[in-house]
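Quick look at the format.
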Amino acid sequence: MNRTNRLWDSVKYASLLLAVFAILFPPYIIVVNAFKTKEEFHSKSYISAPDSFLYFKNFVQAFKQADMTTAFGNTILIVAITLILNILLGSAFCYAVGRFEFKLKGPLLGLFLFATIIPSITTQVVNYKTVQMLDLTNHLMGPVLIYVGADILQIYIFLQFIKNIPNELDESAMLEGASLIRIFRSIIFPLLAPATATIVILKTIAIYNDMYTPYLYLPRAEHVVVSTSLMRFFGVNSGDWQMISSAILIIMIPTAVLYLFLQKYIFAGVTSGAVK
């Protein structure tokens, strides 16, 4: 029995070490190549360390060549508008279905649930035709419309939080003469702060890392975002890999910092509905 347990423990630790290696190896490759000169990259192995980690010329060139100023500006604008609409519309909808009983409540929730089992790739033609019909291709509102209308993550997170808020708070406010809008604005929405923080983090990271949607709906150079800016380092038959690595590190820094400082809200928001 002891031999079996030791063998099983060895298998578990070996699998964990393999998983750690698989996760950390790609970032390691990016870091070591971001600080290499072009001559170093072609003369050394891609897994070897650079001569110096103080060579920042790649980062300066990558920032200028990829037009990171415009890319970050467009990305921040898309993320900000998407978050505002998702949070306002999602919380208001969840307040309605979570607090009141009406005939269409069941069908509405059923439609949202049904939407989650439809592969997103099967709806791309319809989505593109809709955005095209609204004349929002080559416009920053095109991706915003997709991010707001085709993602229902906020519905389930807000709904679980609202169900945990006592109804007595609403009743007490009604006795004081508060309207439903006042109750939602002054009582319910402030109590949804953990859920809001969770949605902000998850949505920001998802939009920030998405390349497909901006590439499809924003083909013009002036509408570049951080994900599509990386494509400027690729030619027809080759890529400037040390510059790509530097640009990736520049892009990784904001999301890494955001995640490290706010990760507790992610776990709190996602696990709040784990039992259900």
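Next, a different chain entirely:
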Amino acid sequence: MPKKIICFGEMLWDIFPKESIAGGAPMNVALQLHHLGMTVEMISRIGDDKLGNKLISFVKDFGLSDRFIQKDPVHPTGTVVVNDQDKENIRYEIVKPAAWDYIQWTESMEKGVKNADAFIFGTLAARGEESKATLDKLLETPALKIVDINLRPPFYTADLIEHLLTKADVLKINEDELTLLADFYDLPSKMEAALEKLNELFDFELICITLGSKGAALYQDGEIISHPGYPVTVKDTVGAGDAFLAGFVYKYLANDSPEKILDFACALGALVATYSGGTPVYKMEDIQHIQNL
């Protein structure tokens, strides 16, 4: 029976110089998990406008439920202005306010999270007080809580990060974010020691760190498992980290070994980087092809 997962946070349009692409890290993760055959729902909020209607059509075309996607009569659908001149270092201007800053708690939403096998969230959707209050309520449920901190300046504070880390069971982070946390918590300079200290502070079940072209690593029970990643020709990196997270969650919930979890997640992240946009359509054989490189 497929695992049930709920993703919380932003869904929006990435506005590129030549086109607009549906995006938002939580939505990308939700769509990737759905594509992998899991039962997924998205908690978010869009404007009651043309861009919002297009987003609803987009997720429905993927087969994703819109049960917990609210419509806001006042605030617009979220947008991000993307500068993609440097394909390896894409820059974003996240427009504020947006409808996803105003996600309202509902009883059915909380029941959905309680019944989920995993609840995935990040820091960006907590930049708005209303969405943060809703997230805080949902974090009191017993579901496995997976945080992808996904830091986007200036929309976070040290207090917010610490608050969300204390609620999480599993942490997904990248190298730059670990460097920032090292400053906050005076972590050691070596990655292994830094992850160990971070785990002592927050008692995670597992920490997953992505290392860009160098692959990724998992820290669990005092051990680090690494994967060098897969070399591919990158079209853009939009959504590659989200795909990695989806692959990680897919295998983690299947209780696969750390080595298999990393291998699949790295392959899926690499595959998505060979496409434009964060939610390409692919087959399981495409992931296996990357694994066989």
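The chain has ten helices and 13 strands.

See the schema section for token definitions.
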